[in-house]
Amino acid sequence: MFGISEIAVILIVVILVVGAKKLPELARSAGKSARILKAEARAMKNKDADTTTAPAPRVIPGETVPPRGPEQDTRPQ
Prior knowledge:
By secondary structure, the protein is mostly helical. The chain has helices spanning 4-18, 23-52.
């Protein structure tokens, strides 16, 4: 996409515009932003994986649980 010469020109322009004193601070904040973005992407991926692989219900031999519908309300009245 970009060659070495194009990247060098872009870096020189950035140094001239931003200034040499602000460059380390700029790089540090860009690194923090990249880490936060990576962590958020990983969290979203793990969240999606957790919701798609729900554990199977536990089955106990000899026990039956009737289906619960709206007509079987167990709240006291």
